[in-house]
Fold these 2 entries.
Entry 1:
Amino acid sequence: MLRMQNIRKIFKTEMVETHALRDFNLEVEEGDFVAVTGPSGSGKTTFLNVAGLLETFDGGDYLLDGQSVKGMNDTQLARLRNEKIGFIFQSFNLLPDLNLFDNVDVPLRYRGFKAAERKRRIEEALEVVGLASRMKHLPAQLSGGQQQRVAIARALAGRPRFLLADEPTGNLDSQMATSVLDLMQEINNQGTTIIMVTHDPMLAKRASRNIFVRDGQVSEVGKEDDIVELLHKTAQVG
Amino acid sequence: MFSYYVRLALLSLRKNILLTGLMIAAIGLGIGAAMTTITVNYMMSSDPIPQKSERLFHVQLDNWSPNQPYNEPNEPPDQVTWLDATNLLQEGRAFRQAAMGGTSFVIEPSQAEQKPFIASGRATSADFFPMFDVPFIYGRGWTANDDNSQNLVVVLSKATNDQLFGGENSVGETIVMGGRAFQVVGVIDDWQPRPKFYDVSTGPFNEVEEVFVPWSLKEPLELPLNGNNNCWKPVGEETFSAFLRSECVNSQFWVEFEDPQDADNYLAFLNNYVTEQKKLGRFERPLNNRLMDVMDWMEYREVVAEDAIMMMYMAIMFLVVCLLNTVALLLAKFLGRSGEIALRRAVGASRRDLFLQYTVESAMIGIAGGLLGLVLAWFGLQGIGGLYGDMTEGLNELDLTMVGFAIVLAIVSTILAGLYPTWRACSVAPAGQLKSQ
């Protein structure tokens, strides 16, 4: 469903060449809940950006839903992002001037849905995250956890195959983090594939699969491995 | 999506009123200054008789001194002599032709309480009225027979008819001009071609004359000249007849063709005429006769003043400066929203989508700036009217075309000013922005 083969990503400046991903190989099946861990600077976020089609790559091939994204132009990539991928960010990235309804509406606008269809999907998505009654509120009127729920609703409204989450609970207290994680788990249970970058061992433990990224390369973490210990080591390396 | 972009633009513009106001003010000032001068130029250079301007031709004959041209390098006089105008009129080779010259009359109203007054006049021939599509409210122009018979007939302007007859139908009435009774045959409706193309010698934006009389009366009544008179050699005797038959140029001659192609034949006729006149000792210069249609004639006479053109260029430069300021303000505004841009890119907006969104926002600033510019242009034109008075009457009015032009100019200018900021905004790398929010 998501297959990366020997992906290479190099960031170049005048002085320095940084190999963010080197021969990065990964296969994610439909319905997986994958936690991506690794030390700071290991390439986790670069991987997530490449997977989310926000960054191009310099070598290898990337198949999303069986379709190679190599050589696609900006419009094709934008359409693919819109139709197949939902994003959840650490800092929510809600648009402060738009109310919750309009925030969730943003990806649907680019899909070209009719107004009635958009309305139905927005209401459904906000219902799922428990904020249907507050759809006319502005993001600033919500708590951090509620804002992240709106971001999840925005990601869900387009009914994507993949949900890519970058430290989704990084800005939340533990109670809110648990609540958001429960919600993500529920979404995954309903069939949406989730790939989540995290430093949080609690989050990583709840994923069905764990992969570890170091120096731009990936290794699978077996279920029997002690993820907490691995992450502790990660912190020491980072 | 367009209405969505409009809504987003309104939200964005409302968010920072000060910045938005600055941009609108910059565009408005630029458009206001540009439109003020462009309007004056546009009115000066507009076609005064568009329905037939390409079929109306002004005649120039080079009867000037053999030793030097009328104007360098080899330009013939702008006017013709009374003699040549009269001769060409008698030949009648064109579909229509009109000889004409400015004059003036002392009019003695019939009502005792009204004082005599001096009225500007034009001696011309019968074709003047149909040639120039002169509108009448009462009666009509005189006939060729009136010309030939030297009948004392007159056509009044609407204002003169209002003054003498209280606006009533005066056709058939008589008025006393210069001590003679003239019969009114027609009253012209409001008519003010701008420029006053048929005689620009005393000013292309002067008022239309108050009375019109037959050309054939000029000699017998010794009608005074009210206009430019240029001579290259002295008039022999000091008589009116000698003055009329001199080489002094003080009359205009216009012809109308059914087909503009007929101009070639008429020019050949003019050359033959001059060749014949040479045998009489006139026209000592080589053949140098000209026919110019209305717009060519306006351009030749430089009806649009040079200082007006210069002012327009300066105002356009000012608009460019205002637009450069707008570029900087838009750049600050758009790049300040890189987080939003990145988010929209992440959730499926292509660069094209964002380009359209920000172009719509630029255009909306342009519309607001254009409307402000129109208001400022109106004040500017009133200011010009106040400075120059009657000279600019009719030149300082914004017509619908100019209003539309102002709005289009504002929108196009602002979109152009917004291109670079929009391009920069669309080039924002979403990945970095999303992480750093």
Entry 2:
Amino acid sequence: MLKYANPTNFLALAARLIPWLAAATALLLIVGLYLTFFVAPDDYQQGASVKIMYLHVPSAWLSMMCYIIMTSAALGTIVWRHPLADAAQKAAAPLGAAFTLLCLVSGSLWGKPMWGTWWVWDARLTSVLVLFLIYLGLVGLWRTIEEPAQAARAAAILTLVGVVNIPIIKFSVDWWNTLHQPASVFRVGGPAISGSMLWTLLIMALGFSFLFLTLHLMAIRNEILRRRLRRLSIDAAHAEEKAEATA
Amino acid sequence: MMQSALSALFWRELQLARSVGGGGAMGVVFFLILVSLTPFAIGPDLNLLSRIGPAILWIAALLATLLGLDRLFQSDADDGSLDLLLTAATPLELVVLVKCVAHWIATALPLIVASPLLGLTLAMEPASLAGISLSLLAGTPALTMLGAIGAALTAGLRRGGLLMAVLILPLTTPVLIFGVSAATAASGGTVPFHIPILILCGLSLAAVAGAPFAAAAALRSRDA
């Protein structure tokens, strides 16, 4: 396992894994979408608009899982100062922002026919919006600090401070009386939805997780290459300077 | 020795805040402008103003506190005294805490004193005026401490001021929620006053306990 902490070994591993992961993502999403549109039944109250769930719930899970992965990477940055952890952190922030935005937009589209409004300021929606803003702030921080190692440490501190929001999102539907419904899959006493709907949801969630994994690995690979390019161009500038000085 | 170093730092910070461009008095003026602009935006309906008065005062206090905070470490980073503080024997966490306390006294305390007067112009009731002062007293330490993390993260960056607000404002949501609910609970309502005010005190205490470590780590990370 430690062998792959070396960026070169990691690049080799990523090059081998990415095609398989991409294929698995495509397969899972195709099966999941087929189940969504042709197998999973319409809800007796909500009609066909219940199908938004198969997009909304996985993206909501991923928006939080991405933050947890980013937090682990932030610990790696703070404790070991490992460049791979820096790259994993940096790669996760825009992905997390994208999944959170997907969650907010799909939830809004689902809310209009069901609740009669695009948006309510209840605890679940507000805390997810705060998560989105934290992701955007992190992307802004990464772009403002030029030195990559310094940017990584600053982003890691902000990530660790912002992690208080994750339990608030998870438990907001239990702590406050929200319009958003409470958890119906991971709960005491087993899932409250059944049969083909549950299977479709789980396959879509797996597909989204593989999608995230694929994109995250690709983004980490790009970040490692970007850092190497930066180093090479700095070295080249130094060499040029030295050549001019001697000439 | 450490005591005298910290108290020297404390008085230095207060004197800097009082001097021209220090931002202490500017914060209050900014607060005054924000509050007095709102009635122009929403119209001079006194019933409406007295209902949303606590929210206006809290938003204005939030912005006035945070926008003044970007100078907390920036001027020290510019003139090099931050490097001296970093290499000093005094723990950096205590340095951060002392700077925050001085900053709070110089900028937030005047806001709290001024808030009942401004509340009068918004036609707020006497109980509500007391509520807004108490809720600001309980909540602004959390704002200052959270802002210190942002100020430390963005110290020495070009265009750090706006970035700092973007980083920290989302994290201040709980303080704003309980601050406004305490201020409105003071003038009647279903929630008893002591519940939001105790939560607000808890948020401030947690921020005072935790934020100095995060801000100190951020300051150290600048050139480690």
